[in-house]
Amino acid sequence: MTFCAAPSDRSMQATQIAPMRRGACPSLSTPMMTGDGLLVRLRPKKSGFALAELTAIADAAALCGNGILEITARGNLQIRGLTAQTVPLLSQKVAEAGIAIAEGLAIETPPLAGLDPTEIADAVSAAERLRDAVAAHQPPLALAPKLSVVIDGGGQLNLGAVTADIRLRAVRTNGQVLWLLSLAGTETTARRIAALEEAAVVPAVMDILKNLAAIGRDARARDIVGAVATRWATTLNLDEIAPMVPAPNAAGIHDLGKGCSVLGIGLPFGQIHALGVGTLLEALEILGATEIRLAPGHALMVLGIAPDRIGAAQALALGHGLRAVPRDPRNHIAACAGLGACASARIDTRAVAQMVVDTAPALLDGSLTVHVSGCAKGCAKPSASALTITAAPTGYGLVVNGPASAVPTAYIEENNIRTALEHLDKLVSERKQGGESARSCLTRLGADGITAAVQQG
Questions:
Q1: Exposed site from 195, 249, 305, 394, fewest CB < 10 Å?
Q2: Residues with Cβ < 8 Å from 452, sequence gap 6 or more?
Q3: Contact 352/412 with Cβ under 8 angstroms?
Q4: How would you label 341-354 residue by residue, b for 16+ Cβ within 10 Å and e otherwise?
Q5: DSSP letter at 149?
Q6: What is the DSSP letter of 163?
Q7: Rounded to an integer, what distance in angstroms lies between the CA atom of residue 243 and that of residue 188?
């Protein structure tokens, strides 16, 4: 196993005083300064964590940081509230627990890869071959810190909604399994480039990575889409390849057949305290859990529990205040760390998110995601949302059908946010037509109707 060496005092001091910049990717060797201290992001080299490993990480987070653990929208684990003095100790604790942490290029596979019988192809094997090729390349490729590759063999919890620079998706066409290569986006927004045979996958991706490295460390796939499309032109009509079926929410019980089920547990607004992790894992182990995998949507996938016990595990998670059923309204809110945790945030995002749950349940029917952002960067959901609540110079801004960076459609005074949400809930509840979703209703009413509702006295 390969472990991350503890950074030197000099490098830690340099990191601590370095300005925050968008595009950086925090890790054990390069932690990022945030509003509540240094932040470290951990990606396991293996598919997931043994329960003892995740327990050790939670204990280390309580010892070295402020005890807050996060799972990001992409399914990465973050530890908050660290200092220049405690990051080396955290690295030591991770190494002592025998946990191998991945550094460098993020190559992501679905959380149930290798387990799901509905997969079309083996994404794990393809990812391992690509990692080996990247590691063996000399000189090492200098790539953008946030550059990412998604390799998706299909299955129940696919990564179609995850944005990536380079996407590979297994498809069946004309009786043959091929890998659809796309660049710069999600399954629906990325540019389709080619359909590759298995043997061409690693050479094609390595060719793209080498071209990006040659441009410079800030280069992303969007910068070379046209050139790659020309180089890997194909006679196959890529538009005829059917789109990927959207993945269900990770929260809930997922039946993999043959007596195998997996429990998805979502963290409320992406966070949990280390003390809660320890208690939860201890109880899950009693029920038979053997492995925890991280999943997009701020979720944990619990493996190893027998079908006759998985209902008890689900009830246990619900008792801990976690998201463990598909109909939990919190599944449909994206919130960043917010005021106090992020130096850029100007509102308490988690409090506002809970306020949406409490006062505007009509919005949370699953047809849309309400995005609550502490600033215009929109880290929790960079893409557009049907409704985004963001910080304004005084109070809140409401963006309709746009990202947090867009000019707000309406402004809400700080003391009026609860009333505004109540009016919005009433608007949707009273104006929805038979069988209409919240998204369809808001689309029909338009920005003017929404603005008038939230700005009522």
A1: 394
A2: none
A3: no
A4: bbebbbbbbbebbb
A5: E
A6: -
A7: 7
DSSP annotation string for 294-361: EETTTEEEEE---HHHHHHHHHHHHHTT-B-STT-GGGGEEE---BTTBTT--S-HHHHHHHHHHH-G
Name which of 166, 281, 260 is nearest 220 in CA terms: 166
pTM to 2 decimal places: 0.88
**Residue 418 main-chain phi, psi, to 5 deg:** -65, -45
pLDDT tier, 22 (very low <50, low <70, confident <90, very high otherwise): very low
- Which residues have a Cβ under 8 Å from the Cβ of 235 and sit 6 or more positions away? none
Q: In this model, does residue 17 exceed pLDDT 80?
A: no
Backbone phi, then psi, for 264, in 5-degree steps?
-95, 125
3-state secondary structure of 151: strand
- Count the neighbouring beta carbons within 10 Å of the beta carbon of residue 319: 11
Asked whether 199 and 216 are in contact (CB, 8 A), the reply is no
Burial of 277 (0-12, 13-18, 19+ CB in 10 A): buried
Provide, rounded to the nearest whole percent, the portion of the chain with pLDDT above 70: 93
Averaged confidence pLDDT in the chain: 89
Length of the chain: 457
Which 3-state string (H, E, C) describes 59-81? HHHHHHCCCEEEECCCCCEEEEE
pLDDT digit string, tens, across residues 227-247: 887 777 676 788 888 889 889
Of 108-117, 192-201, 220-229, 364-373, least confident by mean pLDDT is 220-229
Chain-centroid distance of CA 444 in Å reads 30
Joined together, the tokens standing for residue 206 give 């390595």
Please state, as a whole number, how many other Cβ atoms lie within 10 Å of the Cβ of residue 47: 18
Query: Can you read off the two tokens belonging to residue 361?
Result: 């349940």
DSSP 260: E
Tell me whether strands 106-108 and 148-152 are parallel, antiparallel or unpaired: parallel
Residues 428, 387: Cα–Cα separation, whole Å: 13
24 pLDDT band (50/70/90 cuts)?
low
